[in-house]
Amino acid sequence: MATSQERLGLAGETLRTLGGLGIPKPGPAEIPALLQSDSVNLMVERASAVRPGFRLDHSNSQAIITICQRLDGLPLAIELAAALVNSLDVHIIAQRLNDRFDLLNGSTHAPLARHQTLRAVADWSYGLLNRAERQLFDSLAVFVGGFTLEAAESLTDSHEQSGDPVAMTLSRLVDKSLVVSEDRGVSGRRYRLLDSLRLFGLERLQSNNQLERMRMLHASYYLIVAEHAASALRGPDQETWLDRLSLDHDNLRSALEISMQIRDFETAARIAGSLYPFWDLHGHYSEGRRWIEQVLRPGRDISNQARTRVLLGEATLAVIQGDPLTTMSACREAVGLARGTGDRASLAHALQYLGLCSMFQGELDEADSFLKESLENAITAKDSWLESWAFVFMTSVALCRAQYELTGTLAEQCLSASGPHQDPECTGWATLALGVSHWYAGNLTQAVPYFSEGFQIFQRLGGLWGLSLAIFMAAEVSGARRNTEQQVILMGAAEHLRTAIGAASHPFLVRWLEQASQTARTILGDDEYAREWQEGDQLPLATAISLARSELETPFFSQLPVPEASRRPAAS
Question: Fewest CB within a 10 Å sphere: which of 116, 251, 348, 497?
Answer without folding.
Answer: 116
